[in-house]
Amino acid sequence: MLSCLAKIHGGMVLLRSVVIRWTERRLSVRRLYRIFMPAAFVHAAFPLFKRMPPTAGLPDCFGTGKDVPAKRSSRAFSYLNRTLEYFPERLTTVKWSNRCRIVGLEHLQEARRGGRPVVLAFCHFGEISLLESWLHAAGFPVAVLVGTTSTSPSKHRRLNDRISPLVEFPIMFFLDQLRQVNDFLAAGNSLLIAIDTNFGKQISVPVRDGWVFQMASGPIRLAARHRAELISCSIMDEGPWRFRIELGRPVPRAYLAAEPDLSRAGQHLLEEMCVHFQACPENCPRSLIHRFSKPNSAS
User: Fold this and answer.
1) CA 40, 44, 47: angle at the middle one, nearest 5?
2) Which CA distances in Å does 79 have to 14, 23, 25, 95, 299?
3) What are 212-263's pLDDT values in tens digits?
4) Distance (Å, rounded) from C-alpha 132 to C-alpha 136?
5) Angle of helix 29-45 relative to helix 72-81, nearest 10 degrees?
6) 240-253, pLDDT tens digit by residue?
7) How far is CA 36 from the centre of its chain?
8) What is the CA radius of gyration of the chain?
9) Ranges of each domain in the chain
10) 118/150 Cα distance (integer angstroms)
11) With 60 as the cut, is the pLDDT of residue 2 above it?
12) How far apart are CA 81 and CA 83, in angstroms?
């Protein structure tokens, strides 16, 4: 019975993917958005009686007093944005080419001219699932290191790799493929890797006013090992299927010596990202907010 249900579900997922890709090739971006919007809102509202998580405030160190909204409408727009995951290779076409602007692209261009690999450090903030596709569309193919093993990618991702493969470039590595990751960077390529995960060694990075941020140090260590540029990377939603990617200033080379200065490198990355957290708190999931703490505060 379970096997039968799994096959039915797999068939439905395949059918949805085929329909979305067929529709995308025949309609304008504006019409696509209008067609898929109702489905996204239905998805966000189902099940109807599911309780939304409570709002969470940004840490006091930001000085904003803003709450992170937990609304079904926010979830709906996130589902709507994820529609683009079904046709990543199409983002290079004319009708999509002006839908994402990239600030700081010159940092990647300079690294490419110098033949240097790049480690792009990101947090789970905004529509991160679209980062690699938009960077690829801009002419800078990247791969991403995800926090699972190679035997457990999502069904959606496995399906996408079959239907719309970017066959000329690997786009995903897993935790049990670190040797391949090292070879990939040694060849001068670019890799996206999160700093707000619990995988690997952790460091406490000072923020301000006694606050610290728990950060995975893996991206810093990888950049130091491969003499790569280490650059923060964030993505923001700027309206109906319009996005902005912000590439921060590269971490100073002095912080990425043979024995890297993990704290200063981490502070640099965080400073480049926090301005976006502060400006767009609605893009901050609770898991990200909870990585900020004030250890010495009175209980």
Assistant:
1) 130
2) 17, 17, 20, 21, 39
3) 999 999 999 999 999 999 999 999 999 899 999 999 999 999 999 989 999 9
4) 6
5) 130
6) 999 999 999 999 99
7) 22
8) 20
9) 84-293
10) 23
11) no
12) 5
Lookup: tokens for 263: 């704290």
Contact between 185 and 117 under an 8 Å Cβ cutoff? The reply is: yes
| 3-state SS track over the chain | CHHHHHHHHHHHHHHHHHHHHHHHCCCCHHHHHHHHHHHHHHHHHCCCCCCCCCCEECCHHHCCCCEECCCHHHHHHHHHHHHHHHCHHHHHCCCCCCCEEEECHHHHHHHHHCCCCEEEEECCCCCHHHHHHHHHHCCCCCEEECCCCCCCCCHHHHHHHHHCCCCCCCCEECHHHHHHHHHHHHCCCEEEEECCCCCCCEEEEECCCCCEEEEECHHHHHHHHCCCEEEEEEEEECCCCCEEEEECCCCCHHHHCCCCCHHHHHHHHHHHHHHHHHHCHHHCCHHHHCCEECCCCCC
Residue type at position 245: I
- What is the spatial distance between Cα 124 and Cα 146, in angstroms, rounded to a whole number? 12
Tell me the pLDDT tens digit for each residue of 137-187.
999 999 999 877 766 555 445 444 544 445 455 678 888 889 999 999 999
C-alpha distances out from residue 272 to 18, 123, 143, 171, 209, Å: 39, 11, 22, 25, 18
In CATH terms, is domain 84-293 a member of 3.10.350?
no
248 CB-contact burial (10 Å; exposed 0-12 / middle 13-18 / buried 19+): buried
Output the six-digit token pair for 70: 């937990």
Q: Give me the mean pLDDT over the 44-60 stretch.
A: 60
Against a cut of 0.85, is the pTM above it? yes
